[in-house]
Amino acid sequence: MRVKRQKKNRRTVRFFTVCFGFRQPFKVLCDGTFVHHLVSREITPADTVISELLGGPVKLFTTKCVVAELQKLGKEFSESLEAAQMLSTATCDHDEAKPADECLSEVLGTQNTEHFFLGTQDADFRKKLQKESIVPLLFGLNNSLQIDQPSDFQRETAKDSERKRLTMTDAEKRMLEKQAARILASNRGEGAAEDEQWEAPRVVSTRNGLGVKDKPQFKRNRAKGPNPLSCMKKKTVNNDTKRPKSKPKAESKPGGQEVKKGENGAEKRTRKRSRKGKAGPEST
Question: How far is CA 280 from its chain centroid?
Answer without folding.
Answer: 113
